[in-house]
């Protein structure tokens, strides 16, 4: 019995990943290629247990229409797409053709490219092009941290009642309680905004760098 999440050593993390839903060969290759091609950015990928959780959650919620803000080389989008049923759709938003060029290849290899649409451009602008209706079942926010309040403002009114928004990096490596830069301060303020938002019920989970799940009323 413990009243808080236990710290994960590298060994314990490897155990958790191996006994949870370990990444398959395609996801392992994607992680390896990302590290080789983009060594300075590879840490932006979601953790393997988060990828497994995103697939699980997408299936659990019966998601048919999902959005991702911040696609990078495609690990989280691949995980979400794999959880979609036949006919399900994932719309991805990113600013980088270079990063998402890698994503496109892995979506094709995994056979999910036909259910993913990629929109390139600043998500603050491109999200506004989505229908102004409550049509989204699931959204994952994992882009530039100062943009989170904008993405939240665009997404919440578009979620169907009971739809869920997942938000990554809400702990900022622990720095949310003593912010050291603009991104830390943005996330600390964003977390306060979510807590005060009467349109949602939210929980903050200590998965990887912290993941908030918000259910929209
Ligand atoms: C943390 S990474 C996303 C990681 C991804 N979820 C994964 O699991 O691989 C953040 C991404 O946000 C994108 N990004 C940064 N600023 C953006 C903006 N204004 N609009 C859309 N995407 C943006 C970057 O190009 C980068 O690919």
From TrEMBL:
Keywords on record: Methyltransferase, S-adenosyl-L-methionine, Transferase
One GO MF term: S-adenosylmethionine-dependent methyltransferase activity
Gene3D superfamilies per UniProt: Vaccinia Virus protein VP39
A GO biological-process term: methylation
SUPFAM superfamilies in the record: S-adenosyl-L-methionine-dependent methyltransferases
PROSITE patterns found in the cross-reference section: SAM_OMT_I
Protein name listed in UniProt: Caffeoyl-CoA O-methyltransferase
Species this protein is from: Micromonospora echinofusca
């Amino acid at each position: 019995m413990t009243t808080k999440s236990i710290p994960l050593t590298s060994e314990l993390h490897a155990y958790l990943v191996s006994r949870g839903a370990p990444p398959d060969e395609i996801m392992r290759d994607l992680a390896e290629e990302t590290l080789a091609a983009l060594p300075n950015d590879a840490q932006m990928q979601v953790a393997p247990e988060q990828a497994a959780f995103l697939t699980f959650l997408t299936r659990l919620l019966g998601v048919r229409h999902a959005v991702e803000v911040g696609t990078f080389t495609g690990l989280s989008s691949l995980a979400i797409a794999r959880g979609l049923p036949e006919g399900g759709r994932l719309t991805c938003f990113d600013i980088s053709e270079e990063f998402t060029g890698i994503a496109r290849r892995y979506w094709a290899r995994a056979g999910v490219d036909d259910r993913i649409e990629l929109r390139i451009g600043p998500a603050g602008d491109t999200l506004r092009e989505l229908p102004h209706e409550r049509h989204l079942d699931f959204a994952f926010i994992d882009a530039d941290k100062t943009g989170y309040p904008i993405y939240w403002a665009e997404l919440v009114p578009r979620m169907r009642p009971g739809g869920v928004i997942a938000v990554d990096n809400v702990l900022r490596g622990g720095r949310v309680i003593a912010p050291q830069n603009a991104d830390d301060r943005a996330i600390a303020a964003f977390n306060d905004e979510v807590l005060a938002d009467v349109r949602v019920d939210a929980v903050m989970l200590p998965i990887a760098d912290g993941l908030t799940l918000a259910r929209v009323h």
